Amino acid sequence: MARLVIDMERYGDVDVVRLTGELDMSSKHLLTDALAGPLASERPRIVLDTAGLRFCDSSGLWQLIDSQRRAESRGGGLRLVGVRGVLARLLTITQLVDQFPPYSSLEDACHWSSLR
């Protein structure tokens, strides 16, 4: 079983969370735990860098959707950058590309003036 490694840092007023490995049923709790603090903030602005993800299943995708909804309910948002491979395919198949629009770079994703 591949591990999910999560690295977090602040980029201005944005929490940047880098995911490496596999996001699935057995590892989604790690992302839940990592996002608990940022999602509890007054106006969470979170960018998930998914370039290092090798795999994501439907439970991982559901975790992303739930986290985005929680962030938006507090006046913030959750964005994805580095989407490729299995995650890109999942977003396309499930027609969630509009919900998670692609950002070409971390810098673009962190400029929140264009919050949708």
Characterise this structure:
This protein has 116 residues and is α/β, with parallel strands linked by helices. Helix 2 (58-73) links the parallel strand 3 and strand 4 (77-81). It has helices at 28-40, 58-73, 85-93, 106-110, and strands spanning 4-11, 14-23, 45-56, 77-81. The relative contact order is 0.18. It has a four-stranded mixed sheet.
Number of H- or I-type helical stretches: 4
How can the largest sheet be summarized?
Answer: 4 strands, mixed
**Strand portion, in percent?**
25-35%
The count of β-strands is 4
Q: Can you describe this structure in just a few lines?
A:
This protein has helices at residues 28-40, 58-73, 85-93, 106-110; strands at residues 4-11, 14-23, 45-56, 77-81. By secondary structure, the chain is an alpha/beta fold.
Q: What distinguishing features does this structure have?
A:
globular, alpha/beta, 30% strand, 116 residues
Topology of helices and strands:
Layout: E1 4-11, E2 14-23, H1 28-40, E3 45-56, H2 58-73, E4 77-81, H3 85-93, H4 106-110
Parallel strand pairs: 2-3, 3-4
Antiparallel strand pairs: 1-2
Helix pairs in contact: 1-2
